Amino acid sequence: MSISHVFDTYAKTAQNKTLHFNVVLNEQDQQKALAYAKHWLASIGLDNAEVTPENCYFYHSIEAPAALSVDIERQGYAIYKMEGCPK
Fold it and tell me: Is 76 in contact with 49 (CB distance < 8 Å)?
C-alpha cells in the first residue's frame, strides 16, 4: 500500500456551523487538498461553506485504510468525517 497524506480541515457554513474533517490524498499538496475540500462540500450541498488554507493544513502521513484507499483511487481523494459532518 502507498502512503497517503492527511490534511486536517475545518469549514464554516453560512449558518455558522463548523465541520471538521480530513482530506486524504496521495500527494502532499495543500492546494489540491483545499480544492478537494471545496469539491466535497459542494457535493453535499454546502458550496457556500468557507474553507481557507489556514483551515486546511497538512497533519500527517499514513497508510490509508482500505475504504479510504478505494475513494482515493476512484476520485483522487477521500474524506474522513469527524465533527459536524453529515452521516
Answer: no
Domain assignment present for residue 86? The answer is no
How far apart are the C-alpha atoms of 38 and 32, rounded to whole Å? 10
Answer whether 0.90 is exceeded by the pTM. yes
Domain that holds residue 75: 3-81
Q: Please give the grid coordinates belonging to residue 1.
A: 500500500
In the chain, the number of structural domains is 1
How close are the terminal C-alpha atoms of the chain, in Å? 27
- CATH number for the domain harbouring residue 43: 3.10.510.10
- On whether residue 87 sits in a domain, the answer given is no
State pLDDT tens for residues 18-75. Answer: 999 999 999 999 999 999 999 999 999 999 999 999 999 999 999 999 999 999 999 9
